[in-house]
């Protein structure tokens, strides 16, 4: 009987000492900006679309449904009103076909002298398939005084 009473008391004490996780107070995380009510494309295969974007500095720190906004406090909240939101695009003014071609052609842009320019082309020609045109056009002749080679 003493063992049973001891076990019962131990059980009751352990039950009373357990923490109740359902009554936790979570203060919101501070962010710079929250975009809500968006139709936002994330680029993430596992979660391609989201409604809410949380931004801190220049980084996206969270995305999710509308409930995620309650976890954050921000200086600025932008209501996208259901409009499309896409990642930033930087226009470096690359003409798509020319830019794509330049990835598989001789790269002479870093040449600082005519000699370096010609050596770069010679080295590329040495590994190019026989009878195949060598194309390219990205160089800066101003790097070697504006003189154009022949």
Index terms:
150 residues, alpha/beta, four-stranded mixed sheet, three-stranded mixed sheet, 7 strands, 25% helix, elongated
Can you characterise this structure?
The protein is of the alpha/beta class and 150 residues long. 25% of the residues lie in helices and 23% in strands. It has 3 helices and 7 strands; from the N terminus they run H-E-E-E-E-E-E-E-H-H. The protein has helices at residues 2-17, 96-102, 114-127, and strands spanning 29-36, 39-41, 49-50, 52-56, 59-64, 72-79, 84-85. The strands form 2 sheets. The protein has a 4-stranded mixed sheet with strand order 5-4-1-6, with no helix packed on it. Strands 3-2-7 form a 3-stranded mixed sheet, with no helix packed on it. A hairpin with a 7-residue loop joins strand 2 (39-41) and strand 3 (49-50). The longest helix is centred in the N-terminal third of the chain and has 16 residues, at 2-17. It is elongated, with a radius of gyration of 32 Å. Residues 10-24 have low confidence and may be disordered.
What's the topology here?
Elements: H1 2-17, E1 29-36, E2 39-41, E3 49-50, E4 52-56, E5 59-64, E6 72-79, E7 84-85, H2 96-102, H3 114-127
Parallel strand pairs: 1-6, 2-7
Antiparallel strand pairs: 1-4, 2-3, 4-5
